[in-house]
Every structure is written in structure tokens, then in C-alpha cells.
């Protein structure tokens, strides 16, 4: 891997098994860096889907043998970083280790991370987190936390409404559970809506890594209120056209808030549940709890209650537009480039 003092390395996890959320948000950050004359390089697992993704992306990248141990992956990333010498490193790997962060810093790199839950977070130069309640602040670096640091793609911002006023919700729904829908939540959501005796139109969006897409199509086929879309190129237009969304905790939750679309959110893990509870305090989502406690009747009741309460819906919409303003990538780049001496 060839880099230079004018480059920034992105060490990222992702792929067919774990999804594309980390990759996608780092892609947005990398394009912001590129627009400022900085050269981004990606270090990622050797996953066939990722290889195809990066061949099409135009970014320089290097593939590393996959390992179930995050520490093993980071050790390989750290060795490559120390050998190549970028000006800065951005970690988006969930759990870093202190010895690897320190090794990269000893090689002269500024080390920043996104939502790092590992021991290495204490040694970071900068830590960016959407929720300060679930991460540790660096000992000597700085923590930048809150929805202001949510990374939003530029393509989405053209669909963001210019004002917070809206007359009333329409029965237009967005249903999507991320790039892979790892817990298989789409079909239960469809079943709950099928039983709902009300007029609506629902866009059921399946990510590129959803395995049971044919089963979802079959579940929706008999009901004309559903439209099933797999990895649509105009995803943000579809999201923006909805009055209410059903989704899981993740990037889509924040993107919907930025678009002013209230969301009913399901958590996949206990950590996700804490994040959802904290984000719900902003007023823009309703947290339905962990996925294994969600019933079809409960989901249908919450959808009906939200769409039939225009005042609550307007308040949720306005809260989302205030909480996530779409400038997170710019703010993060400003900090990293200043620390690395580019500004």
C-alpha cells in the first residue's frame, strides 16, 4: 500500500456478513476529504462484495484476509499504516485496541475513530460519536459527540425539506432494515401492515445483502399497497417521500431524521437499544424496543397512532430536522484535517 503525507487511511469493517453501514459512512467522509485535495486510501476485509464495491468507487484500497477477531484485523491494518505513513488514520471498526492505536501514533499518524467501543478509544487523538453515552472519551484527545456528527451523504441533502412546516402526514410508508436485514425483520413488518385495515402505500426497501428477497416479494405480492424495491438507485428520494418509516437502529435512522421523516425504530442489540433511547430523547423517533420483543400487533398500533396524531407527527418531523442538519461530515473533516496539519 503506497501512501504519502497527503493521504488519510480509512481502516474499516464491513461486508456481506456485517453489512455496509461503516463502509458507506466512511465513503461519504472520504469524498469530503477528496474534495479538499486530500487522498483517501481504504483498508478493508477481503470480501467479494467489498472488492466489487471499491473497484467501482474509484478509491485506492487494499484488501486484508478476513478474521472474526477484530483485534487481528486491526493488527494487520496497523502494520500497513506504520509501513506506509499516511498523515492520519480514521478507524471505523467498532472495537480498537490500545497497542494498535499507539503504534500508529508512534509512526507519526493522527488517529481518529468513529463510534469506537474498544480499549483503544482512550488513546485516540479525536473520537466522533453519535452518542456520548456509549463511548469513552480519549484521555488526551477530544470527544465530539451528538447528532451534529452524524455523517450524511451529499446526495441525500438535495431531498432535505427547506422548511419545517407540513400540513399533515400522508399514508406513505418506508420500510427498510439496512443493507442486510440480519435479523429478518422485513417480513414481520410486512405482516403487521397487511393486517392493518387502512389505506396506505408502503415502499419496502431491501438492501443489496438481503438474502431472502424473494420471500419478501412473495409476502407482499397479494397486497397492492406494497412496492418492493431492491437496492434502488433513488433511495433518498423514496425515503424523503414517506411520512413515516419503520427501520432498525443504524445509519438509516439518522438519514430519515435529516429528511424530516419520523421513524418507528427497532433495536437489534442492547447497545442499539441504548442508542435508540438516547436519540428518542430528541423527539424524532419512537423506539419500539428489541427486535425479539416486537409483536406485529404492537407495530401496527404504533403506526396507526402516529399517523392519526398530526400534532405529534409534526413535532417528530421538526425535531429530526433540527437534530441532524447534514453537516456532520464537514465538521469531522475540519477536525481531522486541522489535527493532521492540512489546515
Mean pLDDT: 91
In terms of DSSP E residues, the strand content is: 15-25%
Number of helices: 13
Distance between the termini: 25 Å
Largest sheet: 7 strands, parallel
Please identify the top-level CATH class of the largest domain.
Alpha Beta
CATH domain topology of the largest domain: Rossmann fold
Describe the model.
This protein is α/β, with parallel strands linked by helices and 343 residues long. It folds into two domains: 7-152 and 326-339, Glycogen Phosphorylase B (Rossmann fold, 3-Layer(aba) Sandwich), CATH 3.40.50; 155-323, Rossmann fold, CATH 3.40.50.2000. The chain is 39% helix and 20% strand. It has 13 helices and 13 strands. It has a seven-stranded parallel β-sheet with strand order 3-2-1-4-5-6-7, sandwiched between helices. Strand 9, helix 7 and strand 10 form a beta-alpha-beta unit. Helix 6 (186-194) packs across helix 11 (296-307). The longest helix is centred in the first third of the chain and has 15 residues, at 21-35. It is globular. The chain starts with 6 loop residues before the first strand and ends with a helix.
